[in-house]
Amino acid sequence: MVKRMLWLVMALQVTVAGALAWLLARLVPADVALLLAVTVVLMVRMAISANNFRMAARPVPQHAQLAWLQRLQLFLHEYMSTMAVTSWHMLRHRPRLHLASAPRGLPVLMVHGYGANGGFWVHLAAQLEAQGLSYATVDLEPVFGDIEDYALQLERAAQALLAASGSARLVIVAHSMGGLVARAWLRRFGAARVARIITLGTPHFGTDLAHMGPGDNARQMRRDAEWLAQLDADDRSQRGLMTSIYSWHDNIIAPQDSCHLPGARNIALHGIGHVALGRHPAIAQHILAEIMGIT
What is the pLDDT of residue 1? Predict the structure, then answer.
């Protein structure tokens, strides 16, 4: 369903670019018209990304403040990450379970966020494979479903990975909403089979931007959601299993300290956008350190 939705968006962009090129070809050479049309579409995507940063902007600690060049790098990296993930990696994604021939650690189950699929993890998957780790991705459906229902899907994926790898425990790495899915799974199925849950940019206490999103899952991620309050009350005794990694410059989670989870290990970075959390080298280093440090 996610891929179908993304293909529709891609088709719309191509159609718009084609129509613009046809109109502009009356004024300029055809190759110039096509270049201008593609540029317009890319600029619209850039404007959407810039608006996300604007809506999510909140005061940051003194140590996390950025100079103008760093702000530009932050924006460009997030924009390019978004374009690569939504216009290429998620379109080409096929669910995958990779078993290392001589695994060095526990298997890793990767859980994507809102409006995404397992293609989000292409960069981290390559890092895990290079380190000799087994892994799998899960695709949560339907796109705008209930997080509690996603927890059941996560359970099936966990069972499959544990059975295939022969391991008694696994590590969960989850982006954004996926972190809430992992916590809902933990609350429902217990901690016996999980060694660590690592969340990236997860709105543990909601995000203001969720009011703009459709679906039960978006409503569950609102700052005033009763579902989040109940989850917070229910899993406090299990926080020692969790690591929350997030950025003070997340352009989707607002306020950004909503990612700070009391009782968990919290790692706050800066200069990284929301989608870029899945491909930034500093994030990968922290994830691998957490995984390889498990005894």
Answer: 80
